[in-house]
Amino acid sequence: MKKLLYNSAKKIGIQLSDIQLEQFRIYYDLLIETNKVINL
């Protein structure tokens, strides 16, 4: 998933740092966990 996000952002001219990629991963994981309890 990290590579997909990096490559997709790069295609539209956005350079993401490793820290930003990790933050997106954490956000994604939180959304998945929350969606198990609350239908988002």
Terminal CA distance: 21 Å
Query: What sequence of helices (H) and strands (E) makes up the elements?
Result: HH
Number of strands: 0
Most strands sheet: none
Going by helix content, strand content and strand pairing, the class is mainly alpha
Counted up, domains total 1
Shape: elongated
Helical fraction: over 70%
Annotation field: number of helices? 2
Flag low-confidence runs: none
Strand content: under 5%
Q: Radius of gyration in whole Å, from Cα?
A: 12 Å
Averaged pLDDT: 94
Provide structural commentary:
With 40 residues, this protein is mostly helical. The protein has one domain (2-37). The protein is 75% helix and 0% strand. The chain contains 2 helices and no strands. It has helices at residues 2-11, 18-37. The longest helix has 20 residues, at 18-37. It is elongated. The two termini are 21 Å apart. 0% of the residues are buried.
